[in-house]
Structures are given as structure tokens and as C-alpha cells.
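Weekly structure sync, notes
Attendees: PL (lead), two postdocs, one rotation student
Agenda item 3: pending single-chain targets
PL asked that the sequence for the first pending target be pasted directly into the notes so everyone works from the same version. It is reproduced below exactly as submitted, 90 residues in total.
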Amino acid sequence: MTMLELLRLGPVVPVIVIDNVDDAVPLARALVAGGVRVLEVTLRTAVALQAVARIGREVAGAIVGVGTIIRAEDFAAASAAGPASASARD
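Predicted structure, written out during the meeting:
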């Protein structure tokens, strides 16, 4: 999926900082229910990658990507978490 395709699906992309992994799925479900499907989870917290993986597995309709990738290790870890991370690729 290209960046333009993502923006057509979600012209508003929330930048989400998740401190508690148990908050990830309910938050993502609420956003998707409200019509916000494209979500960016930042790598600013210790549970961010767990949150991405859970959202990807448990929230139908969510397109989750990873932000705040500043090191090669972050990119590798984000890829392993399994997000639809077009924002990290494009």
C-alpha cells in the first residue's frame, strides 16, 4: 500500500503513545468504530511493539503502523511485530 492509498483511507492519522499494553486494543477499536482506521503507534514506550502486535491481531479494520523509528534496530523490531507499517517503508 502506498502512502497516497493510506491517506485516502485515513486522511487523519492519530499518533498514539501507549504506556499500558492493555489500553491498546480498546483504544484502537474505539478509533476504528469512529471511522479512523489508519493508526500510528510510536516507539516511545516499552510496550509499543506489543501494542502494535495486539492491535494487528485483534482489531478488525485497523491499519497499524509504527512511528518514531530512529534506529535500524527499531525498524527490524517493528517489522517483526507484524504491523502494516507502510509509514516505515515509504
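Discussion points:
- DSSP finds five helices and three strands in the chain.
- The chain has one domain: 3-89.
Action: rotation student to compare against the earlier draft before next sync.
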